[in-house]
Amino acid sequence: MKSDAELREAALRLLARREHTRSELTRKLTSRGWPSARVGELLDDLASEGLQSDVRFATEHLRSRVARGYGPRKIRAELRQRGVSRTLASQALQAAEVDWGEVALEIYRARFGEETPEDTAERARRWRSMERRGFPADIIAGLLE
C-alpha cells in the first residue's frame, strides 16, 4: 500500500505544474489507486495550508481564458466542467471586472476585420463563431450592427 507521504508528493507534483480544483485532484489521485477517504483528508490539509484553492484556480483560469479571447459563457462552462461550484464561478466572473464588449470587439475585429457582413449567411457564420467563443447574444448583436 502506498504511504501518505507518497500521496502528498503526488498531489504536490500535480499542483506544481498548474492550479487544480479539488475535484480534479480527487479524480486524478483516486484513479492512481489511492482511496478517496485518504485523498479527501489530504486535500483538506492542502487547502488549509493554502496549497490548493478552488478560488485561486478559478481566478487564474479566468484570467488565462480572457487573455485568449473567450467570453463569459464559455469560461463559466469550463469552470463548472473542472469542478468549480456555480457560486464560485459567478463570483470569479463578477470580481474579474472584465469589459466583455471590449474583449468581443477585439476578437471580432481580429477575425473579421472592420467590414459589416453583406448577407445573412455571413452574418450567421460570424454570429456562430462569436457564440462558440462564449459571448452572449446582446454583445454579438452589437458587433454585427
Q: How many distinct helices?
A: 9
Straight-line N-to-C gap: 64 Å
Helix percentage range? over 70%
CATH fold node name of the largest domain: Arc Repressor Mutant, subunit A
Shape verdict: elongated
Residue fraction in strands: under 5%
Which stretches are low in confidence, meaning pLDDT under 50 for 5 or more residues running? none
Radius of gyration, rounded? Answer: 20 Å
Q: N-to-C SSE series?
A: HHHHHHHHH
Tally of distinct domains: 3
Assigned CATH superfamily of the largest domain? Winged helix-like DNA-binding domain superfamily/Winged helix DNA-binding domain
What's the story with the biggest beta sheet?
none
> What structural category do the secondary elements indicate?
mainly alpha
pLDDT averaged residue by residue: 94
Q: Got a strand count?
A: 0
CATH architecture of the largest domain: Orthogonal Bundle
What CATH first level of the largest domain would be assigned? Mainly Alpha
Short description:
By secondary structure, the protein is mainly α.
Describe this structure in words.
The chain folds into three domains: 4-52, Winged helix-like DNA-binding domain superfamily/Winged helix DNA-binding domain (Arc Repressor Mutant, subunit A), CATH 1.10.10; 55-95, Orthogonal Bundle (Arc Repressor Mutant, subunit A), CATH 1.10.10; 100-143, Arc Repressor Mutant, subunit A, CATH 1.10.10.10. It starts with a helix and ends with a helix. Helix 2 (22-31) runs antiparallel to helix 3 and helix 4 crosses helix 6 (86-95). It is elongated, with a radius of gyration of 20 Å. It is mainly alpha-helical and 145 residues long. It contains nine helices and no strands. The model has no long low-confidence stretch (mean pLDDT 94).
